[in-house]
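Fold this: RNA helicase
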Amino acid sequence: MDEDWDAEVGLEVPQAYVPKADLMGSLGKNENCDPCSAWSGDFGSKDRSGFGKDRDNFHSKDGSGFGREREVNEDCAFSNRGRFGGQRGFRGFSNQGKPRGGYRGGRGGRGNGELDDSCSREVEISSDFTGWGRRFGRGEQKENEGRGRAQGYQRIPRGGYRANDEEVFSKTTGSLSSTVEENGEKTGPKVTYVPPPPPEVEDLIFAHYETGINFDKYDDIVVEISGKNVPPAIMNFEEAEFCDSLCKNISKSGYLKPTPVQKYGIPIILAGKDLMACAQTGSGKTAAFLLPLLQHLMQDGVAASRFSEIQEPEIIIVAPTRELISQIYLEARKFAFGTCVRPVVVYGGISTGYTIREVLKGCNVLCGTPGRLLDIIGKGKVGLSKVKHLVLDEADRMLDMGFEQAMRKLVSFPNMPSKDLRQTLMFSATFPEDIQKLAADFLKSDYIFLTVGQVGGACSDVNQVILEVSQFSKRDKLVELLQMTGTERTMVFVETKKKADFIATFLSQENIPTTSIHGDREQREREQALGDFRTGKCPVLVATSLAARGLDIEHVQHVVNFDLPNSIDEYVHRIGRTGRCGNTGRAVSFFDLKCDIPIVRSLVKVLSDARQEVPAWLEEIAFSAHGTTGFNPRGAVFAALDTRKSSSFSKDLGSLNDPMNPSEDTNEDLWE
Ligand SMILES: Nc1ncnc2c1ncn2[C@@H]1O[C@H](COP(=O)(O)OP(=O)(O)OP(=O)(O)O)[C@@H](O)[C@H]1O
């Protein structure tokens, strides 16, 4: 079951969760237990039937390893019983097992209380994650640890825990606002957290990881463009004719040549066209929109003015999580280095006063998660009349049920230029056709549709392995995998916040230094957790789907889907945390026959399209579960269809030969 997104996004928060078993207590007396330090908690025997000496609190009747008070769906409760299927072709992880240990912190207190491990799944719509940019070196991280060191959870009256404010989406007003002042009334503790400042040292600002061996293979990927008057792609950054500052910053970033989405996207955006762009995870979509937009600002000669009571940014960028928007902000700050353009980032979970002060220092590029963005606009601190460019990153997420209302509210503000008077850009690795149609409400009718590879296709640099593992065997299997990955960075995805904490606790018991990140944790805890993962202090990060999109962290070599998600798009994004920028990676997913049948067909298709080995047992399940009609898992790799082509637009839109591969036949070859 996925996180409780309503509580995250801010639908009215149910009663604060009161943990039946005080996690912190069972972790040891120190509420501020150090993350990933040598495990000091006394968890008694290594018997894996429970989490430790408080096993009574964690045991369900069936010994599944969870507290008896939890709502247990017997079929899907996970514990150490049962078997797991071996997997033909599973090559295992590199064997660098080293003893490790330690886990900090439990979970926040908001959510819907009981853990329900049933197979039914909810979709977590968003939250505001953050964690300063991936570039913090150990030194920087150390310094920030001193500053923003994670605190233990705050006990609030009435017992239980409550993560400091998340943004609350008021059911009544339909607006996202901080819980501190919802409709003028105080609704929760004031958020006072101020994140550590972003790096000032140039080396840290421009720190980057190397492209992988497969970087040049990007040029072999099928590209499709539909729309009118499409400018030709660039072969190199010089052809974009960026200003000197941008050219220097591109070079300092280690970018030697553009990726396909940049080759085609940059000239389209420079030409002022609206764009819906789909390209695989880790292929440089962020720079594809940032570079041309910053070029527009440089050409227009804008400069941030700290003397205005109301800031009027020329660019607004939205993304679904704090983590991702912070990352985009750092990229914008990097590319704008040495110029008078000032990016600012706003997101929930941090002091509103701090946010406003940062904006009022000057703001040309406003990066934000929807809640805090709408909040600060509503407070009159940001004017929209000068907005020329609006970017929706992870656009399909921004337009699905959780955010559509907020996005419509954003574009409906009185001074926000209409879609015909601004440039709107949408980027994602996945773009379901129904969302594409919805996107048309935000784009000019003549927008360009760009697909690099197959929309929704997985990155082919990720080796995907599917193992049949029942809920009862997952923990054993996970430990086995992690003991092989050693200190290699591994992200483990689970479906609920509570499970994230329980699994992280369990792994700590197994001397695997682990931390967790999910929507119920305090802001500083998230940043600490992410920092520990980035620096390698905790090479294992247990995360919910909140961390599935956009995270660009160096050296993530493995992704484990402890629980498969309920949507194939989510799967594609999760495994895309590895295998980035031409590097290779590996994703192992535990397929539970009792829970995961609904995704089996899509999963086989994604594996096939990415030319991965499809286990025979999985294919059989796919055929038996849904029959064979209309299911051809080894069918051709299809580029996405521009949904406009299925309507009257089709006569106006032509596909262009891929100018990068003039010999490419734009008809049949596209489909092979
Ligand atoms: N032209 C380039 N040359 C070298 N590295 C690049 C280039 N473009 C982007 N990168 C690097 O590749 C990594 C992935 O880029 P980015 O995060 O923008 O990918 P993405 O397509 O947005 O991925 P996702 O879909 O997961 O959000 C980043 O570290 C970025 O700095």
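The first strand starts at residue 167 and ends at 169. The CA atoms of residues 106 and 501 lie 6 Å apart.
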